[in-house]
Structure formats: structure tokens, C-alpha cells
Design brief:
The chain has 48 residues and is α+β, with helices and mostly antiparallel strands. The chain has a domain of 31 residues. 12% of the residues lie in helices and 12% in strands. It is built from 1 helix and 2 strands; from the N terminus they run E-E-H.
Length: 48
């Protein structure tokens, strides 16, 4: 869906969700093969 703009601001959709659809075929063609998680998804927390 096209992003709506008004006076330089994005007008959020009234529909639920982020406004994007995943192409599952692309996801399946490019699976995650790494071992490390993203920093915010660490298996053990960092010390404060």
C-alpha cells in the first residue's frame, strides 16, 4: 500500500499491521544460517 503524506508527515493507515506483507517464498529461499543473534536478542544478558 502506498504511504500517505500530508504537510510533510506520514499519515498512518487505519488498518492493523505495519503495512507490509512478507513474501514467504523469498523468506524460504534465504533462510537465516548464522549462529549469532541480534544484540537485542542475546541469549545471556549483558551486565549493566
Amino acid at each position: 500500500k502506498k504511504i500517505e503524506w500530508q504537510d510533510g508527515n506520514v499519515i498512518p493507515s487505519k488498518e492493523p499491521g505495519l503495512g507490509v506483507e512478507l513474501d514467504e517464498a523469498v523468506c524460504e529461499a534465504h533462510p537465516w544460517t548464522g549462529t549469532d543473534l541480534h544484540l537485542q536478542m542475546m541469549q545471556t544478558p549483558l551486565a549493566p
